[in-house]
């Protein structure tokens, strides 16, 4: 079965010195931060950032995270984090690929799943809130099923 991609988004950044070890290789834990940077850029682009989520009465904790390290990112390199949104109705599922901008080398693959949780009662929502669906459908690359 082919995975449907609802929309795509890309973010670039330069690897800062404080993210690397003595060999100038990015410490593995910082890749989680890079996914978050890309996800925040996407959410901002659709007008549904974490502040807006709260205003609408929801938090969206990460409930699953997967990473596969392929090659290390290095100090000073430009990296691109491409994300593909693959589920929007029961959760927010995103697939990520991190590549080196200069060489095009794939560095890391990953995915996250976030679930909407009501701030009023702390209950996980089994369908995403209407405000989320409206926002994601506004992204210029949105493709309905």
Automatic annotation (TrEMBL):
This is Acyl-CoA thioesterase. Signal peptide: none annotated. One of its GO terms (molecular function) is fatty acyl-CoA hydrolase activity. The keyword Metal-binding does not apply. Its EC number is 3.1.2.-. The keyword Protein biosynthesis does not apply. PANTHER family: 4-HYDROXYBENZOYL-COA THIOESTERASE FAMILY MEMBER, NOVEL THIOESTERASE SUPERFAMILY DOMAIN AND SAPOSIN A-TYPE DOMAIN CONTAINING PROTEIN (0610012H03RIK). Belongs to the 4-hydroxybenzoyl-CoA thioesterase family. Keywords: Hydrolase. It is an enzyme of class 3 (hydrolase). It comes from Neisseria leonii.
């Amino acid at each position: 079965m082919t995975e449907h991609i609802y929309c795509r988004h890309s973010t670039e950044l330069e690897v800062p010195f404080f993210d690397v070890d003595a060999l100038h290789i990015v410490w593995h834990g910082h890749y989680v931060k890079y996914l978050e940077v890309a996800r925040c850029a996407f959410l901002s682009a659709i007008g549904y950032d974490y502040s807006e989520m709260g205003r609408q009465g929801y938090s969206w904790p990460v409930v699953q995270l997967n990473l596969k390290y392929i090659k290390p990112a290095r100090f000073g390199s430009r990296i691109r984090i491409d994300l593909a949104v693959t589920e929007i109705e029961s959760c927010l599922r995103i697939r990520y690929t991190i590549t080196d901008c200069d060489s095009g080398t794939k560095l890391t693959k990953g995915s996250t799943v976030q679930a909407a949780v009501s701030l009023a009662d702390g209950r996980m929502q089994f369908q995403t809130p209407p405000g989320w669906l409206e926002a994601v459908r506004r992204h210029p690359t949105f493709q309905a099923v």
